[in-house]
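re: the backbone from monday

yeah here it is again, tokenized this time
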């Protein structure tokens, strides 16, 4: 939904498009990951304090294994598509599915140990995995918030733009490049250029039109 809304065309009220909805959706997904990690940690601590012998049937183990494969495939696919189209929401959603798969792996490992060795390690497995999920959720949240607040322009992109502008005949210098991020695929900027002092306004206009385009 976030990606769909972010791809809406610019309108009179939002002339720069709706790309930043991607970041808002990314914050929501990061918060969900943090809540999942916190909930898992709480339940794991309870199981460590008051361990109970779990009972697993063949059917439940098959369901866990099926869930692991499904979440791994979905997570990898969604994350790959998100990286291809530069959609932070899809990348976060794919990461969330992969974390679910890791949680399910921990559950499966604990179940097998419980069945074979009659040792309850669910709480400890869950606590360790929860730490990784909380860390990943925090990093996802910080990355998205930094994009909303505004990050310094990427040096490679800045250098490439300055070099490109500097190649136009009549441009003697390129300074004060400013870039504003309006979503993962929408960047608007401005730059100052130095031109010969004898160049008239008409010639400057002819020069700047193709640069702007």
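seq for it, each position gets an aa:
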């Amino acid at each position: 939904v976030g990606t769909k809304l972010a791809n809406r065309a610019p309108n009179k009220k939002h002339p720069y498009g709706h790309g930043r909805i991607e970041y808002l959706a990314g914050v929501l997904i990061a918060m969900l990951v943090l809540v999942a990690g916190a909930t898992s940690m709480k339940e794991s601590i309870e199981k460590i304090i008051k361990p109970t012998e779990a009972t697993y049937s063949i059917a439940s183990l098959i369901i866990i294994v099926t869930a692991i494969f499904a979440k791994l495939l979905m997570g990898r696919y969604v994350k790959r598509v998100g990286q291809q189209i530069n959609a932070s929401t899809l990348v976060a959603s794919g990461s969330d599915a992969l974390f679910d798969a890791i949680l399910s792996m921990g559950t499966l490992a604990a179940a097998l140990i419980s069945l074979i060795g009659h040792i309850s390690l669910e709480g400890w497995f869950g606590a360790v995995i929860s730490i990784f999920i909380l860390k990943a959720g925090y990093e996802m949240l910080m990355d998205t918030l930094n994009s909303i607040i505004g990050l310094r322009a990427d040096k490679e992109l800045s250098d490439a733009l300055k070099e490109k502008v500097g190649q136009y005949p009549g441009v003697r210098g390129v300074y004060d490049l400013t870039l504003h991020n309006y979503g993962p695929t929408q960047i608007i900027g401005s730059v100052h250029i130095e031109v010969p002092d004898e160049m008239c306004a008409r010639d400057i206009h002819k020069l700047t039109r193709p640069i702007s385009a």
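Residues 8 and 14 are 10 Å apart (CA to CA). The first strand starts at residue 173 and ends at 181.
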